[in-house]
Amino acid sequence: MAKRKRKIGAADLHRIRVPQSVDISPDGKRAVYSVRITDGKNNRYYHRLFRLSTGGGRPTALTTGKANDSEPRWNPRGSAIAFISDREKEVPDIWVIAADGGEATRLTRLGGGPVTGLSWSPDGRALLFLHRSVAKEDEKEKKKKPAYKHLTRLQHKLDGMGWYKGARWRLCVASFPSGRVRVLAGGENDVTGAAWSPDGRRIALLMNDLPDPERDIHMFPSDIYTIGADGKRLRKITRSRGLREGLAWSADGKTIFFKGNHMKPGEWIRHTVPLRRIPAAGGAETVLTPDVTNWTMNMVVTDTLGGFSGPIYRYHDGVEERLAFLHEGEGSCHVWSVSTMGGKMRLELGGDVNVTDFAVASSTGRAAAVIGEMMSAGDIFSFDLDGSTAPPRRLSRLNDAFFNSLDLTEPEEVAFRNGSMRIQGWILKPPGFRKNRKYPCLIEVHGGPMCQYGYTFFHEMHLLAAEGYVVVFSNPRGSSGRGLKYMNCIEGNWGKLDYADIMAVTESMARRRYVDSKRLGILGGSYGGFMTTWAVGHTNRFKAAVTQRALGNWLIQFGASDYGWDLKFELGGAPWEKPLHYLKLSPNYYVARMKTPLLIIQSEHDLRCPAPQALELFTSLKLLGRTTEMVLFEGESHGLSRGGSPANRLERLERIVDWFERYL
């Protein structure tokens, strides 16, 4: 007799294993990847490494224990794997383990601060990496010293990383096996990426060239430099500023490939990020992918599998040299390729999938990837970059046994309409759904807004469906994945076209026979929080709402957010130039109209949408005598729902469920 399946619960979030970064061996026959595992009892996460064959078979655990092992990278011979780990006193360092397993050895002793961007030299005798040196402090000694932040730069903090303490990202190299570390570049300006030349004698790097570091208003731009592997002969090869990321060299070392554009300050939403090439000796840039219509990175949001990865890989397809890269679609993120000479893009991996990370064996064109699907929180797949778009081979089954024990309903994809505008969306019905019954309905709004919902398992949605709600999520105007015009038509004017789309989705659901039109709720975080607050200030259609980590007051956002000054460009002026414009575009400005019971969820250390906006809203609603409560999570940043502590993520979900149970 088959075992009866149960409904998913809030605590099941802790049971989901999520794949992170992946790398493929030089011969393309093996893959290594990291998996995030939640330890609910101790309220923390661990990351462990696994190895498997790209031809199929059972995974092998390479690391165990209570540590965070991440960014695994094969050496050129395929005999060893370097990775970043905090297994010694919770200080990140570079470690190396034999490809066949065994005890890992510590390569560096950096003393504290984040490490990223691992890359072996072509001869396997050194490792390139980025390091931001922040010494680990003794807590007892720390209490004896003055506690303050001394700010001199416009760019002085970043959500999730906190407040800068004078340290910048530096490019470093560690000799192998000695572990001797040398700083190659960085100091006043951050190094944001690097890549070895094929002969290992030079390194291409991305670094801001700031004429006035104290008040630089460019959020993303980088120049491309080359430097000798000995740290000498630093030379800038780009002629003008712009957004640049992802670096790869041609096989002959004469050309450098990257992604980028020549945007001016505040124009990031107005441009795609095509692949380009530039002579390694310097010169004019050439666009390789003029047909790119969306961003060449992953902007699909979920609370399980996450990715913002946008690497590019050079590989050989017969005698042709090609570049592989990510490119968003509607609700998806795919792998495409293009000749290193430019031309027509070729789809390599498509369909209803969300590729968050991938790696390519340059000599064979075989790839390994982390791929999410609508009912999967991510697994490892392999495929060949040959233009066949054959279905990828699934190599892991991280959550199959767990998911098979649950009574889950797959979201139904639908096309909502707002006049002539088509809006991609999904309807998730409760388990055991009965068509003759009327259900309360929840409208979920994603963050960004230049992000999108897509083909990956979303625990929060399934939890709310299990509680008896029809859950609807969609990609209104402002969302990515549908071309620039669809995305940037709301620039500087949130709450108009996008709000109209959200309300069109709402009314479409209200007309369905199985929806109780008098029991509608709305919720969302970040931009989704903005839209939730905006909605309850402009309509009484919703019976209950939950706004989270919201942008509520553009005046506060301008000066307090980690890069709020960029609003000067999006809103057509600074607050002192257009104060009423800022106010009228702020959801909190309409607080006197708000009658809907509203739960406010905020993170104390949110530097993206800082807490004063939420406190302003809560205080105002209380003074007006409205039904409201606020939950302020201590020690959390903007990404609470995705990367907050396990206990706080669970508490957040339970608060949301409780609010709608009480008021909807």
**Superfamily at the CATH H level of the largest domain?**
Alpha/Beta hydrolase fold, catalytic domain
Binned, the helix content reads: 10-25%
CATH class of the largest domain: Alpha Beta
The radius of gyration computed from the alpha-carbon positions, rounded to a whole number of angstroms, is 25 Å
- Contiguous helical run count: 12
Low-confidence stretches: none
What sort of overall outline do the alpha carbons produce when their principal axes are compared? Answer: globular
Question: What's the architecture of the largest domain in CATH terms?
Answer: 3-Layer(aba) Sandwich
Total number of strands: 38
Largest sheet: 8 strands, mixed
CATH topology heading of the largest domain: Rossmann fold
Assembly level: single chain
- Number of folding domains? 4
- What separation lies between the terminal Cα atoms? 38 Å
Main sheet: strand order: 31-32-34-33-35-36-37-38
- The average pLDDT value, as a whole number, equals 94
Share of β-strand residues: 25-35%
SS-derived structural category? alpha+beta
Task: Tell me about this structure.
The model has no long low-confidence stretch (mean pLDDT 94). This protein has 4 domains: 19-138 and 160-186, Neuraminidase; 188-287, Neuraminidase (6 Propeller), CATH 2.120.10; 297-399, Neuraminidase, CATH 2.120.10; 406-663, Rossmann fold. The protein contains 12 helices and 38 strands. The protein is 15% helix and 34% strand. By secondary structure, the protein is α+β, with helices and mostly antiparallel strands. Strands 31-32-34-33-35-36-37-38 form an 8-stranded mixed beta sheet, with helices on both faces. Strands 1-2-3-4 form a 4-stranded antiparallel beta sheet, with no helix packed on it. β35, α6 (527-536) and β36 (544-548) form a beta-alpha-beta unit. The two termini are 38 Å apart.
